[in-house]
Design a protein that fits this description.
By secondary structure, the protein is of the alpha+beta class. The protein folds into two domains: 57-222, Penicillin-binding protein 2a (Domain 2) (Alpha-Beta Complex); 232-269 and 298-309 and 318-324 and 331-424 and 439-452 and 495-620, Beta-lactamase, CATH 3.40.710.10. The strands form six sheets. Strands 2, 3, 4, 5 and 8 form a five-stranded mixed sheet that branches. A five-stranded antiparallel sheet has the order 10-9-20-19-18, sandwiched between helices. Helix 1 crosses helix 2 (39-53) and helix 13 crosses helix 16. The model is unreliable at 456-477, 481-513 and 630-635 (pLDDT under 50).
């Protein structure tokens, strides 16, 4: 009985072992079948293998270069390297830290602590290294230390190459500005992808490339900026800001026939190479984002449009008293001693040449709100110019905030209408003001400013960028409101929201289209106003005598405007000085605008901005591309 029981026990144990073996074999067979034929399981384990033995590289497409119109580089690329340490493959961390520290000029103790505390595979210990230094590190054959090469954005002109306009490329895609931002898709190019097998030391196996998608470089961009003119503008603006201690300033040079921006200097400015190294921030461009009250520079614009439409007779005379009472409040000339004409009055020409605020106030009152508004709208104010830069401001018309609040048109007070005649109560960008003077300079066409040499191609390719966008509901900010303590405090946050058109305002007259742009003035009117503006500079009583040039006759208009306070009214002792003009006066080739915000000491446009205009134009007149003809300076 005992033997039989023992036998049965052995059979049972054998059966259990055999059954377990069969079950294990069945499970193994099922698993092998799953690995072979189940797509989900196979993909899971294949991915694990790939992570261990496959690696990836993403060759970056080289960013397209940006050039001056003559081919000189504004923004390019340079090859640099970064040093990466894999702590798991470093046998002697103290020795590696000592050798690397000596090459990278870092403390070996700090570098060693950094490496020991890192738990991953790739610790970047240095970036943007010169290629020569990276090659020296490679020659040391340090185990677990690798160098990776890449292209970094480089701006050879630094802060003297229209930096705010060209813009910058920061370390992250959202850190863009200027042309670099606007043409991001065109300049950026496309990254490639390389998949390959690696060995246990993480090195690529020969002939192991599994997938290769080539990279494509970005397209180059040639700007309208002229290298010589840009350098002149940068030099003269720095001198002017240093001399006047102005809070901000800009010099803008336009081709009046094409709208091409030939020079664009701003102050404060920045070095875009600092942004490449990781400085984070957004700098506004005062040329088309900041707004200011233009003052007397708009007087010829209102007069020209009113004359052209027959609303104003050039022989009509206006009495220019020292003081004009409107709604019980006095409106005075800028200077108490400034007196234009007598009781018989003076024609509009004298009001422009001698810059009478009272006379222009009478002109504006005779025109009325609708016609004054039409004058400014026709000259391109209160709308974007369409230049290829992000976050452009429309400017601001009188009573705009009240119209937004009431969601409808508001009748301007008589005093507001009067002040609008000499540029008070409305705000424009420097680019809008220079564009308006192009109308008079080119014979009556409202051109579209551009920064790209091939304008047609630029307009076809342009896109609205996603960075530096205008936040909904953002109020238009004056360029000088608040305190200014450097580039960030003065410019950051001054991006202007687009101004809405007043409901019910009289429609803009139908205009004849022309390849040069929209015609808004006749050639005859432009010729007459050009003579007036030449007299502003040449006439002994003109306010722009300091703008007389050495080699030809210039024409233009001075402007001196009070700085609005963010709390209403105007800041005491704060002014914006400007001069906008063109040369030669008889056949204008360039429009030049000089604006200096809140200068100390002298602040009149004729004293502060006109001499800068003269310095810029005199230097430009010696360049080869400028043809002065036979007209000399009458002075």
């Amino acid at each position: 009985m005992t033997e039989r029981a023992a036998y049965i026990g052995q059979v049972v144990r054998a059966s259990l072992v055999f059954s377990a073996f069969l079950l294990g074999a069945a499970i193994l067979a099922a698993h092998l079948f799953s690995l072979q034929f189940n797509e989900e399981t196979r993909s899971f384990y294949t991915a694990i293998v790939d992570r261990h033995w496959h690696s990836f590289e993403f060759p970056k497409g080289k960013r397209g270069e940006i050039y001056f119109r003559d081919g000189l580089l504004l923004a390019g690329n340079r090859k640099v390297a970064e040093v990466v340490v894999d702590p798991g493959r470093v046998s002697q961390i103290d020795l590696v830290a000592s050798q690397l520290g000596a090459l990278l000029h870092q403390r070996p103790e700090s570098l060693q602590q950094w490496i020991e505390a890192f738990t991953g595979h790739g610790l970047v210990v240095a970036r943007a290294l010169p290629v020569s230094l990276a090659l020296e590190i490679d020659r040391q054959h340090l185990g677990g230390v690798y160098t990776r090469y890449y292209y970094e954005r480089f701006y050879p002109q630094g802060d003297r190459g229209a930096a705010v306009t060209v813009g910058f490329v920061g370390p992250q895609p959202v850190h863009r500005g200027g042309l670099e931002c606007w043409f991001e898709k065109t300049l950026a190019g496309t990254d490639g992808k390389v998949v390959y097998r690696k060995d246990a030391s993480r090195k690529r196996l020969p002939g192991s490339v599994l997938e290769c998608r080539p990279k494509s470089d970005g397209e180059p961009l040639t700007t309208t900026l002229d290298q010589a003119i840009q350098m002149i503008c940068e030099d003269e603006l720095r001198r002017a800001v240093s001399r006047t201690q102005a809070k901000w300033g800009c010099i803008l040079v336009l081709d009046p026939k094409t709208g091409g921006v030939l020079g664009a200097a701003t102050s404060p400015t920045y070095d875009p190479n600092e942004y490449v190294q990781g400085r984070i921030g957004v700098e506004s461009n005062p040329l088309m984002q900041l707004v200011f009250e233009p003052g007397s520079t708009v007087k010829p614009l209102v007069a020209a449009y009113a004359l052209d439409r027959g609303w104003l007779d050039p022989t009509e005379r206006f009495v220019c008293n020292r003081e004009l009472t409107i709604d019980g409040k006095p409106l005075r000339e800028a200077e108490s001693g400034h007196f234009v004409g007598g009781n018989d009055g003076v024609p509009i020409r004298d009001i422009i040449v001698r810059s009478s605020n009272v006379g222009m106030a009478r002109v504006a009152l005779s025109l009325g709100q609708d016609r004054v508004f039409d004058c400014y709208r026709a000259m391109g104010f209160f709308e974007k110019t369409g230049v290829e830069l992000p976050a452009e401001s429309k400017g601001r018309h009188p009573c705009q905030d009240e119209e937004r609040r009431l969601n409808g048109r508001v009748s301007w007070p008589r005093r507001t209408v009067a002040c609008s005649g000499f540029g008070q109560g409305l705000s424009v960008t420097p680019l809008q003001l220079a564009r308006a003077f192009c109308v008079i300079a080119n014979g009556g066409y409202l051109v579209r400013p551009t920064l790209v040499l091939n304008q047609a191609e630029a307009h076809a390719q342009q896109m609205q960028p996603q960075t530096q966008s205008l936040p909904a509901g953002e109020k238009v900010m004056d360029a000088d409101s608040g305190t200014a303590g450097g580039a960030a405090s003065l410019l950051a946050g001054q991006v202007a929201r687009a101004a809405e058109e007043p409901a019910g305002a009289s429609a803009r007259p139908m205009a004849v289209q022309d390849p040069l742009g929209e015609r808004v003035l006749s050639e005859k009117t432009c010729e007459e106003v050009r003579r007036w503006l030449a007299d502003v500079v040449q006439d002994p009583h003109g306010t722009g005598k300091a703008a007389r040039l050495e080699r030809c006759t210039a024409a233009g208009k001075t402007g001196t405007a009070q700085v609005p306070s963010p709390y209403g009214g105007y800041l005491t002792g704060a002014y914006t000085a400007s001069f906008c003009g063109f040369f030669p006066a008889e056949a204008p080739q360039m429009v030049v605008l000089v604006v200096l915000g809140r200068p100390k000491g002298q602040y009149y446009g004729g004293q502060v901005a006109a001499p800068v205009f003269k310095a810029v134009c005199d230097r430009i007149s010696y360049l080869d591309q400028v043809v002065l003809g036979g007209s000399g300076n009458a002075a």
